[in-house]
Amino acid sequence: MKSIIKLEELGLFILGIYFFSQMEYAWWWFLVLILVPDLSMMGYVFGDKVGALCYNIAHHRGIAIVLYLFGIYCSNAETQLAGAILFSHSAMDRMLGYGLKYQTGFKYTHLGEIGNK
To answer: How many Å apart are CA 23 and CA 41, to the nearest integer?
Structure first.
């Protein structure tokens, strides 16, 4: 993956950390929750189509932003937290080369095939 994309994702990851810092949670919550979106990989137990759908929903930045803003609008800290974690996690994954999944298998992503660098 191109270095410029990795830098862009690093910037978005830092922005996600900033979003988190605006909330009243202790920092250890960020460390505990940052990998929770990867539980969506359990969808692959039911095949590539279901797995890709579950994974992509949990790693979609648009959904993360909507959750974060909805949490602000409704004054719901948990929803806002979920949005910040999803946003940060998605940026972190993309920074590492893990993109949204195609239905053909876990290693096929919108950023290219995982393992083919």
So the answer is: 28
Which tokens go with 102? Answer: 């195609």
Give the pLDDT of residue 115.
66
Q: How many helices (H) and strands (E) does the chain have?
A: 5, 3
Side chain identity at residue 32, one-letter code: V
The whole model's pTM is what?
0.89
- The pair of structure tokens assigned to 7 is 């830098």
Q: Give Cβ neighbours of residue 81 (< 8 Å, ≥ 6 apart).
A: 20, 23, 25, 29, 33, 71
Starting at the edge strand that comes first in sequence, how are the strands of the sheet with 105-109 ordered? 101-102, 105-109, 112-113
What does the alpha-carbon distance between residue 95 and residue 40 come to, in Å, rounded to a whole number? 19
CA–CA distance, 17 with 13 (Å, rounded to integer): 6
Tokens of 34: 């940052």
Angle, CA 32 vertex, CA 4 and CA 101 arms, to 5°: 45
Reported confidence tier of residue 1, pLDDT bands at 50, 70, 90: low
Q: Which pLDDT does position 50 carry in this prediction?
A: 95
